[in-house]
Amino acid sequence: MNFPVAGFARLTRPANLPTAAADIFAGMAIAGAVPGSFDTSLWEGPGLLKGIFLIVSSVLLYAGGVVLNDVYDLETDKTERPERPIPSGVVSLIAAATFGTFLLIFGVVMAFLCHTISGLIALILAVFIVIYDANAKRFTVLGPLNMGICRGLNLVLGMTVLGEIIRPEFALIPLVYIFAITLISRGEVHGENKNHIIWAGILYILVILAVLTTVVTKSANIVQLLPFLLFFSSMIFMPLWTAYRVNSPENIKKAVVAGVLSLIILDASVAVAFSAWWYGILILLLLPLSIWLSRIFAVT
User: Fold this and answer.
1) Given this model, what pLDDT does residue 38 score?
2) Taking Cα atoms as reference points, which of 273, 148, 289 lies closest to residue 208?
């Protein structure tokens, strides 16, 4: 791969992009647009194309967000992460800013191709992404909350596939989960964040309970759901416990990476509750892709 092209690719955090697509798959299931739910219109005629528009939109918005994150972090990265594409000189600041802006705009346009309501949600999401990148991430509570709102809006984006917002309250699940991951990441550079890890563990438990109670009360798929939740729990708690015992930057980073990649399993769990086991397996197929990409490109 050409060196500058590789630099642009690294800016988009390719390993994280399948997690954005997983949100859309889960949102479509919550909306009842998946076989096994109450409406199968997604798969009829132009419905499938609308789903594709949303997946592409979500991936572009996520990619644009992480690119602009590095743009705004240039001064910090010169000291803490000099190997990143911008501070290392592989990609210029202007080129990265232009690239990230283009990705956000194109992501919003793709959502409008699905439905007007989809485009409006994507536009709001893009605004929150820029707010986070530019300033909100510097605050202990506001930063994680803003990031959680972005992930919740991404799930809502998937819910708009039928042209309306259905069950938006489920956006609270990824909001809380991402809040937890962002708390953990606060110690990624210097370590010593045991208090954040404790709070993250509590939030993880709340997320699991939310899926078990809130979701299951609206679905009869608890037997299908449990294996997915057990898999999810093992993936997030084992590295979190290791990071607590040995509170080093390396272990903290592993806990963050596990949390980010496990978003796919969380989305699969939520989706199964509103569709069928095979749909959850379909979403889980994104996990090997994400893990493979994480061995080539940085997740954080």
Assistant:
1) 47
2) 273
**What domains are defined for the chain?**
14-286 (1.10.357.140)
Output Rg (C-alpha) for the chain, integer angstroms. 18
d(CA 283, CA 23): 9
**Tokens of residue 66, six digits:** 């992480």
What's the pTM value of the predicted model, to 2 decimals?
A: 0.90
Question: Minimal CA–CA distance to 12: which of 77, 87, 65, 81?
Answer: 65
User: Rounded to whole angstroms, what are the CA distances from 88 to 79, 85, 138?
Assistant: 11, 5, 23
CA-to-CA distance for 110 and 192, rounded, in angstroms?
A: 42
pLDDT less than 70: residues of the chain: 1-3, 35-47, 187-192, 215-216, 218-221
Question: How far apart are the C-alpha atoms of 248 and 253, rounded to whole Å?
Answer: 9
Predicted confidence at residue 2, as pLDDT, reads 53
Q: What per-residue confidence (pLDDT) applies to 240?
A: 94
Reference 118, options 24, 18, 19; nearest CA is 24
Amino acid symbol at 229: L
Q: Is 83 left (phi over 0), alpha (psi -120 to 50) or beta?
A: alpha
pLDDT at 236: 96
Residue 41: alpha-carbon gap to chain centroid: 26
Rounded CA-CA distance 180/86 in Å is 28
What's the rounded Cα separation, in Å, for the pair 109 and 122? 9
Helix axes 142-159, 172-185, angle to 10 degrees: 140
